[in-house]
Amino acid sequence: MKIKCLIVDDEDLALDVIEEYINRIEYLQLEGKCKSAVEALSILNSKQIDLLFLDIQMPGLTGIQLLRNISNPPTVIFTTAYSEFALEGFELEALDYLIKPIPFGRFINAVNRYFKLKKHEFRIPEKKEQNATENPFVFVKSEKKMVKVFLHEILYIESQRNYVSIYLENNREVVTLNTISNIEEKLPESSFLRVHRSFIIAIDKIESYTTTIIGINSQQIPIGRNYKNMVMSILEENSID
Fold first, then answer.
1. Residue 59, Cβ neighbours under 10 Å: how many?
2. Which of 50, 60, 66, 107 has a Cα at 20 to 30 A from 155?
């Protein structure tokens, strides 16, 4: 039996990302997605929902207000760009609290927590990073062949419609017919950071940054509005004012 899921978020991008993640996991089944808490109430009253992915800051009725108005809520995983609501979320017995933009590996951890809570035998293997003593690489398909790309040579990655460009040291570029989300899944989270729906950057290649721009190799990489809080929190850990 699959786990029946509902996504509630007022942002199309967030809905699409969580839907994509759910579709990657065979044990999960998407029962619906909606852009308001009021719409979610209707679905919750008409369908059996096991797992609710719930945004907090939404116009009208917030995710927290929604949860307080459900007498017998499903298991809830909050998805939000605002870490300051974490305490209130856990006080409402939410299973987990995911900060946007949500890496797929972090999503897997949350779903595995649900399986453990419900004593399901399911478990999703988590992505393992390559040994730091090795020279890690990935193969990507480019011009009808598989090309080896060493991770330490990557400067940044840009999504361009149906293609992804991987920019490397020494002015090299590898273009592949793929999605940036698929590329992101193969990269170690400790070394790479999604800063925009269209950009991933190598953290150790950052030369400068502001609240809106990251400088790498004389290029100006934009920081997306939905990614700003998470990006700033990571970069400020290694900053001196």
1. 9
2. 107
